[in-house]
Amino acid sequence: MEKLSKFVEFVSGSPQSRLFVSMNESDPSYCIYGQSELKADLVQSETASNEGRQIRTPDKVMILSEGDIIFYLVSGEASVVGKKHVGYLQTQNFIKLIPNQDLDAHYLVFLLNQDHNIKRQLVSSLQGTMVIKYTLAQLKALRINKLPPIDEQRLIGRMYFNQIRLNWFRKQSADLKLKIAMNQLRKD
Predict the structure, then answer these.
(1) What is the pTM of this model?
(2) CATH architecture under which domain 2-187 falls
(3) Which DSSP string do the residues of 20-39 spell out, in sequence order?
């Protein structure tokens, strides 16, 4: 087993509480990347909600690009940033993960979200704490099993994302069918 830090560079987000909030219209405005954006990126949803929080600041901030791998320190979930969230502000609750050439991005997300060994390490590192929030140090210290060949990683990573998207479509379909049935019952 090797440390995740051997394969990944970690970039912390901007500390939101330290940003100067400006009312000056000439200062850039940023949408803040949050849990709902992470969930949408995980299912590769093409719809973007405009309900998210925004901040206007002249400060230098960390912004996200399409394809960035992001890890949410609060939930312990990872995803790949989609087109709809390009330019969003990355807060200190998120860590950007930059894998080297030996680790496929989608496979990395699969490992962080599904690998029982990693989940066990994350949970055991929280024992005795009242607030459930992971740290950058805990993430860097994760140990992973020997990586499969890169082609196999790509296949597993793509299958993982396709399965999540398929499950999301099935849930959307079931929700719509229920809504239609309830509307029919109201009419009768």
Answers:
(1) 0.83
(2) Alpha-Beta Complex (3.90)
(3) PP---TTS-EEEBP-HHHHH
